[in-house]
Amino acid sequence: MDSILIVGDMAMVMLAALIGGTIAARLGLPALIGYLLAGILVGPFTPGPVLGDLDNIHLFAEIGVILLMFGVGVDFSIDQLRRVRNVALFGGGAQVLLTIGLGLVVGTLLAWPWGWSLFFGCIMAISSTTVMLKLLMDRGEMGSEHGQMMLGVSLIQDLSTILMVALLPALTTIQADSNPAMEIGFSLLKTALFLGLMFVLGTRLFPFLLKRIAQYGSRELFLLATVGLSIGTAFVATEFFGLSLALGAFIGGLVVSESELHHRILGEVLPIRDIFGVLFFVSVGLLINPGLLPTTSGLCCLSALSSCWAKFLVAAWGALALCLLRRTILLVAAGLAQIGEFSFILAQQGRQVGVLDEYITGLTLSGALISTVVSPFLLRGAGALGAWADARLAPSGSRKAIVCLEAPAGISDHVVVCGYGRIGRHIAEALAELGHPYLVIEQDWLHAEHARQQGAPVIYGDASNAVILAGARLERARVAVVTAPDPGLQRLITQQIRNQCPEVPIIVRSNRVEHLPLLYKDGANDVIVPTFEGGLEMLRQTLTRLGVTVEAIQTYTDAVHCERYAPWRAPTTDGELLSCLRSAHAGLNLEWYLLQAESEYVGQSIGSLEIRRHSGASIVAIVRDGNTLINPPASTTLRAWDRIAVIGNSEQRHQFVSWLRDGEHDTIRAEDVQLSHLSASSGNGRKRPDHTADRNG
């Protein structure tokens, strides 16, 4: 009977989570909210279906916490933290400490016990990495300045969670006759001992065992080893060191994060982690009593406001101290304003150690739920407000202090590259190699310094600022290229450039196809979507391998280009010329042929053979003894095993092959002749057996 009850409860939880997650996804909200609401619906405080045994669900939820924290530890990136260490350590550390302080102030004003106030402050301090990443990916802003800042602060928050999990029980359960310093010191000592033990095992024993298991090629064995590792480390941490399960699991994941197998480990544990993680969030929802809302609605709103606005203000202050743009400050603050999944773990831990009761747990979790719901709308509003402020208000005081370098004296016909990220760097390097003058505008100090080290003239500042753009001498520029990864910043820069210089051509990088009409409306001449162009190039290569002619491939890709860009692009002479050049390129493909030793053309000059009269094609290159003769003169004598490149349309190249076959007295069968299409830069084709044309597409 008990087993049937457990199966029934699991089925009810999964069905409720599926329904709640689906509704949340349809509303554009994180699935986490749907899982929490599912827990409320099947919980003991609401009418309708009620789970039979809550203890079993909470037990499975504990496994979810273990796997969740283990996965976070495995996925934790030291390299990411190193790249944003200055922003993360200052901004993230200040945000966590100040938010905890605000929580203590709120608790004191409400006359809460010390333990309640401390837990409340710690719960408020942690933002949701999952919600934050989803919002950034949906907006296409992972590579933006505010996205990188939010990621760095999130990493610091993850680390601070570990300290909270280790220290909160000791801080909040100190007995009257005990020494607080000794309690905290003893807790830190146990954590350090466990970390040292896991470091030794994680760098030596665990990788060795996992490699040996991986060599068997059995996914089941590797999965068992991974799950056993995560649960085993949590058990050792709790049973022998008196630490929490969550802390033990995180440290276990952290020590294997630098292993060469960490991607495989994460891939194996993710599906199981997600299933049990859903159970955890549903179990958190079971603790929320909606019946308390009529009497505690004011406190719930206060909790949500404390969470959102207090964190918003604290994060904004930290970003302001780093001399960032108004828009970046507002976006960072809004992105970090919600309460995260680790906060639910802290709340559950506080309830387990007896510090938090049902009332304060429900109150805190209700506020956290509200903050998560409003987070997407807060981020959207912050972006719009920041864009308005940066476009219409004068530079902030911190920006005035920045030295605005001007373009080198006398520069003209240059390219203004707005943004020195991956794409901007490639453009700048290519322009430098070609010897064409260019100028970089970059607001990230590290990127600007890197550009200077590469010898690029750099203006350090925000390209959407009219004062910064004025120093770029746009009136003398040939073209402006906007490569900023942030969609909002792309539009702002485009608008400012067009306002200052109506004639300069503007090429803009866009994250999504949906942004094309907006950017063209803002004044862009050409908008490039890297993901779309990359997919189109992969299609070209695929069709080439399938034997589709270059003419057909070019015709199709031109049609796709036209369908994607033409509705928004204004007709220009340059655009029409580019289309003509692409079409002409289809007729400029080369045919390489290996001249056989028995051919009657061996020893004869190109001019005497009158190749153009016989086929319409022309010889443009010969590869001989590892050397390439470009545009050989008519007096050049053909030799055996020459690789000959001819140019012409498809029919002319076919005629050339037929003419060569006649010179070889039909020793080559028709099916042995394979046409290929090589660019002029393709020197040596791959050597094939005799009587076979070279194909090197």
How would you describe what is shown here?
Helix 10 (219-241) packs across helix 11 (245-255). This protein is α/β, with parallel strands linked by helices and 697 residues long. It is built from 28 helices and 10 strands.
Short summary:
With 697 residues, the chain is of the alpha/beta class.
Fold topology:
Elements: H1 2-26, H2 31-41, H3 54-75, H4 78-83, H5 85-109, H6 114-125, H7 129-139, H8 145-172, H9 180-215, H10 219-241, H11 245-255, H12 262-286, H13 293-321, H14 326-335, H15 341-352, H16 358-392, H17 397-400, E1 415-418, H18 422-434, E2 438-442, H19 445-453, E3 458-460, H20 466-470, E4 479-482, H21 487-500, E5 506-509, H22 516-522, E6 526-528, H23 530-545, H24 550-565, H25 573-586, E7 590-594, H26 606-609, H27 611-615, E8 618-624, E9 627-630, E10 643-647, H28 650-663
Parallel strand pairs: 1-2, 1-4, 2-3, 4-5, 5-6
Antiparallel strand pairs: 7-10, 8-9, 8-10
Helix pairs in contact: 1-2, 2-12, 3-10, 3-11, 3-12, 5-6, 5-8, 5-13, 6-8, 6-15, 7-8, 8-9, 8-14, 8-15, 9-10, 9-11, 10-11, 13-14, 13-16, 14-16, 15-16, 16-21, 23-24, 24-25
List keywords for this structure.
alpha/beta; disordered C terminus; 28 helices; globular; 697 residues; four-stranded antiparallel beta sheet; 10 strands; 63% helix; 6% strand
